[in-house]
Amino acid sequence: MVDHRSVDVGGVRLAYRVAGPEAAPPLVLLHALGEDSTDWAGVVPALARRRRVYALDLRGHGRSDWPGEYSLELMRADVFRFLDGLGLGTVDLIGHSMGGVVSYLLAQDQPRRVSRLVLEDVPVPRPREKTTPARPDGDLTFDWEVVPAIRRQIDTPDPRWLGRLSGITADTLVLAGGPGSHVPQDGIAELARRVPGGRVVTLPVGHLIHSAAPEAFTEEVSAFLDDAGTRPGG
């Protein structure tokens, strides 16, 4: 059973879904740009068998507040306050695409709060060619203003983010979507190399790994979460 809840994180209300045994280790899921917690619906039941799963709507998305002020640093701060607000000490963390950037920023900034880190098809923080996406027609489940704000940061990332990858202490699994993904795969490989002890696994189904191959995704992630701490160097 999935419960729908919300919490105030310094003046911004974050909505989230929670599932799994209350006493189980906490696992936090962070979605991609333009998605929300519902995007994880296909994998939450499997992950929640042995974890207390918290799937967030990041600011400007889904049922969370749309305050009009957006940055990856603000999202990182929101997630940190979320952990404090719920009394969650050390957690495992999965981030997809934009949510993966927020995840590694949190792991850089708060290493003692992240035990295991899964980065799903996440771009390495290097400058890339800028593009201007067009707003889709009709109602959206997210604030369109979040798109240009976040795209600017991913197109031209803070140079410090790249160097600070080497300071991540969490056991880290990097999942790559293969040649069908729009994210450069050599950059994903570099991301894994820069994180101490990081390992990369390719599931060649494109950018939306957890949606396109939910069973393979949960198998890889569950195995990693269950035994990461016992592997050599883990």
Explain what the structure shows.
The protein has 234 residues and is an alpha/beta fold. The chain has a single domain, classed as Rossmann fold, CATH 3.40.50. The protein contains eight helices and eight strands; from the N terminus they run βββαβαβαβααβαβαα. The chain has an eight-stranded mixed beta sheet, sandwiched between helices. The two termini are 33 Å apart.
Distinct helical segment count? 8
Biggest sheet: strands, sense, closure? 8 strands, mixed
Query: Rg from C-alpha positions?
Result: 16 Å
How much is the average pLDDT?
95
DSSP summary, beta strand count: 8
Task: List the domain count as a whole number.
Answer: 1
CATH class annotation: Alpha Beta
Q: What is the terminal separation in angstroms?
A: 33 Å
Describe the global form.
globular
Q: What amount of the residues lies in strands?
A: 15-25%
Give me the side-by-side strand order of the main sheet. 1-2-4-3-5-6-7-8
- The CATH architecture category equals 3-Layer(aba) Sandwich
Poorly predicted runs are: 229-234
Helix content, binned percent:
25-40%
Instruction: Decide which structural class fits the backbone.
Output: alpha/beta
Q: CATH topology, which one?
A: Rossmann fold
Q: For this structure, what is the CATH homologous superfamily? A: Alpha/Beta hydrolase fold, catalytic domain
Secondary-structure element series: EEEHEHEHEHHEHEHH
